[in-house]
Every structure is written in structure tokens, then in C-alpha cells.
Amino acid sequence: MKYLGIEPQKPKIAVFDFTSCEGCELQLLNKEETLADFLNAVEIVSFREASSSSSDNYDIALIEGAVSRNDEVKRLEKIRKNAKVLVALGSCACFGGVNRLKNEFDLKSANKEVYGNDPKETINVRPVKDIVPVDIEIPGCPVSKAEVESLICHVVWDSPFQPPVYPVCVECKQRFTTCLFEKGQMCLGPITRAGCNAPCPAGGQGCWGCRGPAVEPNYDSFFAIVKEKGFADIELREKLNFFGAFQEVIIS
Amino acid sequence: MLFKTIKKQDFFDFYFPDFQCIGPKKVGTNNNGKPIYQFLPFSSFDEIDLDYETTEYSAKTYFLPYKETLSSFSFEDNDWTQEINYSSNPRLIIGLHPCDINGLVKLDKVFEKTLFPNPYYITRRQNTFVVGIDCKQPCDRGFCSSVGSNTVTHGFDLFLTDIGDRYFVKIGSDRAFNALQKIKTRDITKNDNELYLQARNKFDDGVEKTVRVENLPNLLDIEFESDVWGKWGDKCLSCGTCAMVCPTCYCYGVTEHISMDFNKSDKIKQLYSCNLNDFAQVAGGHNFRPEPATRLKYRYYHQHRGFVESFGQPLCVGCNRCGRACLAGINPTDVISDLQREQKR
Ligand code: SF4
Ligand code: SF4
Ligand code: SF4
Ligand code: SF4
Ligand code: SF4
Fold first, then answer.
1. Is it the case that residue B185 has pLDDT exceeding 90?
2. What is the mean pLDDT of residues A63-89?
3. Which residue in chain B has the smallest CA separation from A9?
């Protein structure tokens, strides 16, 4: 497995789950055609979904999930100390994800609603970057395995890791989707970062922005368009809030 | 040019075994009940509708795909091999309107009749049998007549004009002449000529959208600092939709993809758009066009100034696909008229 005569170093990888659905972790084991090569390119030292071993000696920590309990804060701080590169994996880790919807409610009543008379210790949901510095973010609900692979190449070969800066519309157009606005639906594609290959509009669902903002989205213009097309503020707000990725513009 | 006429039903005997056939297919309707068409593969003529008004996407992707692998490298021990493949299978595209054929003729200038011809484009272009058809009436806010793209003289194999129960057919290539031997054609009569001219006049009478482009290259230079760019640029979402649907936008980026076993690497070309945020970003991170307004302006500069300077005609063929697809309502006739008004003030 030499590349130009150079034997690649296998980065030691540890995967950790926080508050999440573990879908991103499962995604790491997806894309069967390259899975064996993927597992061969790295050394997994800790990954609950794929192996029982666990170690504190790793180069890359992949963090799945948001933080919603105090013990998670401590655990995350410890991981940060051990890791050379800390990666926020998926929308929960990057933005808080769907879990962040909880922050809209009073914590106590939310707790009661979910756990009844057996309340759990809980705090407001926060993305990883609110607790410790994050080196690389791979957004998405779930993440794209291709992007994870590109991250591995980046770590091993120093090839650029650059998720698209442009919005979902580019990929949507490149697969010949009819724009959902044409069909009277709202879509956050024009302000959301591409890289997912626009599966939602292609499937007839407007984008909910799981990959977070594109680089320098034109919010003013987009919001004006949405309004002019007759969508209610509440509908827009609901979409922007869904993955917690648009906190920079959410107006209460 | 050789002309013939063909009975409509005879034309549909025109059969290309072993060709992939592409034509205007209805894919749905929009919110206002208007049909939406796309150029898509078909297997029988009743799947397509040659009376379509316009398509959502241009057919350029059959010549310049959104994504294509330019070359692959394989590594073995201390050596490597490069593989380049630009062969393409024969294709028939039927139903291209004059704007789209003119778009191809312009792409030919860039990729074929140039100092560094592009083999990827040329194989697709030469392996594609192009059958065009005249529009019965102008499409929604199309301004092809203003940029000289409402008629075609070359760039196709066959070109049809609907003259009632027959097509008036222009034969544009030897292979088209040969292919026509297999179906019933008739030499044109005086009456056919009249019907043809009537059809064309009817189209001309229907033209509503016009924009004067003769002095546009100079006007664009003069209005380089105009507020008009800010006005439209503030609306621009930098979403690239305009360039994706445009029959003539051909900008692209190339990226390297290393395979997961580290034994192979692909150079992949992807069509890009000058409206996208990092289009003019260079190594080191500097972005020469950080504002949407500047990027939007340069899209117009390429379409209506740069290309005119190089080739004596605008790149834009006036199909208004970009204008219809733009969520922000940015469209060439309004932007250009704004600039012209600016000058008169
Ligand atoms: S459906 Fe959404 S992503 Fe696709 S072009 Fe329309 S706005 Fe953009
Ligand atoms: S289209 Fe939007 S919601 Fe769907 S995967 Fe892409 S970014 Fe996420
Ligand atoms: S721009 Fe002109 S040639 Fe093209 S579809 Fe519209 S009317 Fe026809
Ligand atoms: S002009 Fe319209 S379609 Fe083009 S990038 Fe701007 S907003 Fe998108
Ligand atoms: S710039 Fe717009 S009007 Fe001109 S050819 Fe492209 S899509 Fe058609």
C-alpha cells in the first residue's frame, strides 16, 4: 500500500458518542465498496460500534453528538487533551442538531415530558465547539462517508480537505432536480453548505439545512424571497431551527 | 443547404439502433400548472413532446457533463500509470431549439475550433447526431432574437420546422443525408417554402422581449462601477443556479480524488459558476471577487463583453433559462436594461 514509494502512516482513530442517534457512527461503517480499505487505512483504537477495545492513545478523535449533560463536558475535555486532531462529526456535534430543539423549552418541563417521574440530569444542548476547540467540522445528518474518507486522505497525505463553500443548489441542479420553490415548497438549499449531493430536494423534500450555512450566505435576500413567495415566518424559523445550524440568524 | 420535407408520421420512423436517444420529456408541472420539460433519454417517440416551449435545463451536460473524470492515475510500487478515456457512445439528441444549437456552436468555438482543442468535448460532440427544431413562438421572456440566436444555419445534422402535417427539413451533414435515405422525403415545393417563411414570420411577430446588445461591450466597460451591480448583486444568492442551467456557461474546477486504498487517484472536473463564493479565490486564500455583486458582474462580462471581444458575438443565446431559474429574479433583460437606463440618465 505504498503511494509514490512512501509507506503511509496509519492514523490512530477513536470514535466517541455523545448526545446523538449514533447514525453518524453507523455511517462510518457504510459505503461497503471501500469499507475494507477504509478500515485498513486507519487504526481504530476506540469505537464502540465496531470494536470492543478502547485506548487513550489516539491521533484523531471523531466526536459524534452534542453535549447535554455535565459529565459529557468533563469527558469531552479529557478527549481534547488526548487528541491531536479533534473532529466534530455530524450536525449534532457541529451545531447541537435536532437535540438542540430542547433549548426552546423549559428544561424542567422538557425533562418531565420525556422521562416522567424519573428525571435525568440535563443541561442546555451545546455543540462541541462551545466546550472545546474543534479542528475540523464535518456537518451532516448523517455525515457523508465520502467526506470522512477525504478527511482520512487529508490526515495521511496532507491533501486538501475542503468541503464545498457553495450552497446545495449547485448539487441540486447538477442532478437535474426541479426546484422545490417551483412546486410551492420551501427549501433552505440556497443558504446551506453543499456536499450532501442534495438528496432531500431530489426526493421531494426541501432542504432543512442539516449541513449548516454555506460560506457567506445571503440571508437578507433569501428571507425576502421566502417572504415574497408567501411562506410564514414561523415556517421559516422552524426550518432554520431544526438542526440548530442557523443560530447566527435566528430571530426569536 | 439542402432542404427536404418529411411527413410527420414518417419522421417518427427515423430509428437509430444502438444510439442513446435524448429528447424533451415532460417531468411535471410547476405551481401554476405549467409543464416542465427536461432533455432526458427516451426509448419511444411518444415519450417526448417536440412542441415543448422550453426546457428547465439546457442540453449542454450531454456535451459538457457536470462531472467527468479527466484522468486516473494508478500507483504500483515505484511506478505509476495514467489512464485517459474520452471515448463516447453514439447519441441522438432531438428537439434542440435554435438557441441551444447556437449555444453548441459557441461551445465549438471554445472547445473545438481553438488552439487547444478539448478531446472530451469533441468526441461527445461528434458522436452526437443533433436534430433541432424551430420554436413555434418565443418562450417565456426569451430574447434569442436580440442576440441573433433565433435562427440557425449550422451546428446540427437535421433541423426541422413544423409546417402543418410535414416538417420542413434542413440537412446539415453528410451523415444526416445518408440517414434520410432510409425514410420517405420529398423535394421542397414553392408552397413548402411559403409555409416555412410563414412559420418563421409568425415566430417573429410573437417576439416580445428584446434588448439592444450592439454596443453592450462598451457600455459594460463604461458602467464598470455602476450602482446597478450593487442593486442586483445584493439580491444574488451566489447559488450558481444560473450557470448550471445555462447552455453556454462552461467554467469548471478540477479536484484530485485519492482512492481509499491509496492506489489510485482521479482528476475530476466539475462545472462551476463564477457566482460561487470562492470562484476567484487563489492559493493563499485571497479572494479577488469577495462580493456577490462583483461576481455577478463578471458573469455578465463574460457573456456579453469578453466573449464578444474574442469571437465577435455574445456568449449568451438569450434563452432566459438563468432568468427563469433564479430565485432572486435576476435576469439578463432587466439587468441589461438597467445599465442602459443608467447611461441615458
Ligand atoms: S430545490 Fe432547493 S436546493 Fe434545489 S435549486 Fe431549489 S432552492 Fe436550491
Ligand atoms: S439537502 Fe439539506 S437537509 Fe438534505 S442532506 Fe443536504 S443539507 Fe441536509
Ligand atoms: S430562446 Fe428563442 S430559440 Fe430558445 S426556446 Fe426561447 S424562443 Fe426558442
Ligand atoms: S444570479 Fe440568481 S441564480 Fe445566479 S447565483 Fe445569483 S441568485 Fe443564484
Ligand atoms: S446567460 Fe441566461 S439567457 Fe444567456 S444563454 Fe445563459 S441561461 Fe440563457
1. yes
2. 95
3. B262
Is the pLDDT score of A252 beyond 80? Answer: no
Q: What is the pLDDT of residues B31-77, one digit of tens each?
A: 999 999 999 999 999 999 999 999 999 999 999 999 999 999 998 87
Residue A152: give its domain's CATH number. Answer: 3.40.50.700
**CB A198 within 8 Å of CB A216:** no
The range of the structural domain enclosing residue A193 comes to: 168-241
Find the helix or strand (DSSP H, E) in which B35 lies: strand B35-42
Does the pLDDT of residue A251 top 60, yes or no?
Answer: no
Contact B40, B205 (CB under 8 A): no
Q: Is the pLDDT of residue B153 over 70?
A: yes
Tens of pLDDT, residue by residue over A161-206, are: 989 999 999 999 999 999 999 999 999 999 999 999 999 999 999 9
B169, β-bridge pairs: B4, B160
Question: What letter represents residue A243's amino acid?
Answer: F
Q: Residue A51 has what pLDDT?
A: 65
* C-alpha distances in Å from residue B341, one per residue of A244, B219, B227, B337: 45, 11, 12, 6
ipTM: 0.95
Are residue A121 and residue A172 in the same domain, yes or no? Answer: no
- Residue in A182, A236, A244 with CA at minimum distance from that of residue A213: A244
* A246 belongs to a structural domain: no
The answer to whether A215 contacts B256, with C-beta atoms less than 8 Å apart, is: no
Single out the residue in A102, A136, A157 at which a domain terminates.
A157
Q: How far apart are the two ends of chain B, measured CA to CA in Å? A: 47
Please give the tally of structural domains in chain A: 2
pLDDT for position B79: 87
> B306 burial class (0-12, 13-18, 19+ CB within 10 angstroms)?
middle
Q: Are A226 and A238 in contact (CB under 8 A)?
A: no
To the nearest whole angstrom, how far is the Cα of A60 from the nearest Cα of chain B?
17
Residue B77: is it exposed, middle or buried by C-beta count within 10 angstroms (0-12/13-18/19+)? exposed
**Last residue of some domain: A116, A137, A157?**
A157
Mean pLDDT computed over A110-129:
91
Ligand 4 atom nearest to CA at B238: 5
Residue closest to B316 by CA, chosen among B147, B73, B156, B78: B147
Q: In angstroms, what is the span from residue B50 Cα to ligand 3's centroid?
A: 13
| Partners of B252 in the β-ladder | B271
Q: How many CA atoms, within 13 angstroms, populate the side-chain half-sphere of residue B143?
A: 21
pTM value is: 0.95
Give the separation between CA A110 and CA A102, rounded to whole angstroms.
7
Q: A178: which chain B residues are within 8 Å (Cβ-Cβ)?
A: 27-28, 30, 36, 56
Q: Give the DSSP letter of residue A213.
A: B
